[in-house]
Amino acid sequence: xxxxxxxxxxxxxxxxxxxxxxxxxxxxxxxxxxxxxxxxxxxxxxxxxxxxxxxxxxxxxxxxxxxxxxxxxxxxxxxxxxxxxxxxxxxxxxxxxxxxxxxxxxxxxxxxxxxxxxxxxxxxxxxxxxxxxxxxxxxxxxxxxxxxxxxxxxxxxxxxxxxxxxxxxxxxxxxxxxxxxxxxxxxxxxxxxxxxxxxxxxxxxxxxxxxxxxxxxxxxxxxxxxxxxxxxxxxxxxxxxxxxxxxxxxxxxxxxxxxxxxxxxxxxxxxxxxxxxxxxxxxxxxxxxxxxxxxxxxxxxxxxxxxxxxxxxxxxxxxxxxxxxxxxxxxxxxxxxxxxxxxxxxxxxxxxxxxxxxxxxxxxxxxxxxxxxxxxxxxxxxxxxxxxxx
Amino acid sequence: xxxxxxxxxxxxxxxxxxxxxxxxxxxxxxxxxxxxxxxxxxxxxxxxxxxxxxxxxxxxxxxxxxxxxxxxxxxxxxxxxxxxxxxxxxxxxxxxxxxxxxxxxxxxxxxxxxxxxxxxxxxxxxxxxxxxxxxxxxxxxxxxxxxxxxxxxxxxxxxxxxxxxxxxxxxxxxxxxxxxxxxxxxxxxxxxxxxxxxxxxxxxxxxxxxxxxxxxxxxxxxxxxxxxxxxxxxxxxxxxxxxxxxxxxxxxxxxxxxxxxxxxxxxxxxxxxxxxxxxxxxxxxxxxxxxxxxxxxxxxxxxxxxxxxxxxxxxxxxxxxxxxxxxxxxxxxxxxxxxxxxx
Lengths: 390, 343
Fold this sequence. Notes:
The complex is a heterodimer. Chain A is mainly α.
């Protein structure tokens, strides 16, 4: 009987993902249903059908895990000796199909991570990655959410610019076309979002404007035009069409063009997210601000935006994650971001057969960044909803 | 930085205007060469990564015959083969990059065709690689010629020029074949190795590279001697700057002439007191050949000394991939590479 009762409430905790945590507000049947054994019994062996599914999937999962373990660790080749014409990959070739060739990562990781940045100067790009991650960490900490953070951002981005370009402080100058790998991906994503976000707030406000129809029309046109085409089209425009309109001899850097295209694209999407937040604010908030006699910008800056943006943090982060991955599209215009650097690393005939290993590592890097963002967004969401529910 | 760029752009624009006005007293008469000299760098469009042509190695240094082609031109104009900025281009933006002036020259395994030369406002300055569609078969099959492939199954990528070329070839020779169309390059190679098809067909350079990847098992595979389509690959420049066109073209001819005369990057200095008039002209010891081109008389010397002659460039980049020299050999060794005389 108790069996039946538990199956009835089973879907709720399972989808919430915290079934093992006791003391939720829901009233629960007594002690026998707590603990891991009970959890397994209710969720995995609730009925004969689910038992069967559990066993079948369990076997498949275990077999796959053993196979992966064999391939990735047990039979893997971790390094290859140096031959006369570069590394001797015969060990990897012999292990093909049986074990992974992680030697390709050992040989190519610096190219994958840093691209064509001069080999001896790659400590600078390594430092840039550390700085970016530190910048994200500081920005994520709610304690640092104050005006000074803006200064920290500006300062860090300047330092990153100095490290990447050089040319001053005794650092050797490195032109943008030698940038690549993870720093390039982080630059495209960070600068893209750092510029797109303020732009999107302005566009969202403009789109809701009632007193400036021309501005409103412009904002609507911008958002709809950009949202109406794929990012890849904008990158093509920036890379292929745009230079043809410039007078001969005038060249805007390829990286800058791609960056502007990404900013414009991200701006349009973020504007719609921000507009959603603006719309969800109760009208009373606007009216109260008007009643206080605040000017438009004071009303927006002190009353509307703080509340609206707080509401849309989860969808904002969701858009951020999307754009972080979308930056990999720049490979079609010949920029060596993380993904394209990985692809080029395996264009070398000796290593061409070990693409799986390289793609696994690339996936892991993207996953770490995206999953961290997702976790962070979920944490924020929970925190804010707690504040609202109080 | 921005101000600097703006000044550069104005200077460049001024240079262009001056050139257009016919005021050629100071410059070389070529806007492109002047621009290259002014910035001290040759901006060279290459591929994003094709082994043997231009591919960044583990240290990020771009290697290959196309990359070395860029280096020889830089050495000829600037006297320093390292003064190259490589701009990786894709098949989509390569021509635009050259048309818009983003790059000075495009050396990106691009096939010389009438359509491209007639309609793009660009022109080809020679051929650095004669490629073409070829066949790879298993050694065990004991096939000596493509003519023996009657009734064979051939693995080929659908929708490519290779597919058209082989169907034309088989029809022309009244032979039958069964195509096995597979989109993905890696899957084709897997299918061929596992025996799903008797022959694998694509550009012969790619076939040779694939064979080379097999290491010790490379001898299990053999490239058939027939090349059934013409794919001459070469450097491209903008039309309208004949001086620069000449420099790009003759720099390659200089590397060929050097190979013909046995002049290499290692032994070139031993020819300092040679009496051979062609080598003397090549080395800039007489004849003012460089001046005639609008560059330094040591142009060819610098290119050969710093990068190498055509044979050296070939061996360093293509031979190591296991590709035979074949029709890319010098004309007097049975190939097609023929440089007009430097005199």
